Amino acid sequence: MKSKPALVMTCALLLVLTATQRADAQAPPQPSELASAADPNKPLAANFVAVTTRLDTAGQPDAAMLATLAQRGYGLVINLAPPSNPGAVPEEGKLVAAGGATYVNIPVNWQHPTDADFELFSAVMRGAGDRRVLVHCQLNMRASAFTFLYRVVHERVPPQDALTALRAVWLPRDQWAAFVADVLRKNGVDFALPAAK
User: What's the confidence (pLDDT) of residue 149?
Assistant: First the structure.
């Protein structure tokens, strides 16, 4: 039987390969469909945060924006919201992949984020290589929390530094504060989030 980390990495690779294969099967969007979204001055999505030169987080981009993410330099798009969320774009994976970027959906339950969700997210992020990554969800709350944790746990960014991008969107509370604290503790990081007001 495979170990848990090997199983998580296998699942992540299958998701990335599936998204890449789907991109080959889809017709690219028509130029008329891209015209409005190609405006570089148009905000990418609500609660957009440029975290690093190759990593951004955001709320849900609209369909026109999703189709142009590869043109905007993104090689990987990770959506942490379930596809049944209000405001979700039903054809998101198809739009992103048809534009030329890899798409991965990790549907994190808002009420119950899990270690397995974070492990899968981490495996996908480690597999991103030098591609520019957009991590998004509905309002950039899941995305900013997972990105904060990834940077602190795996990239060894000092928590106080990583907190800047998280705080630009929110300070986790309730089940999310508990989840963040648990992941940090399990990974030997001695840091407590400031209390949400």
Answer: 98
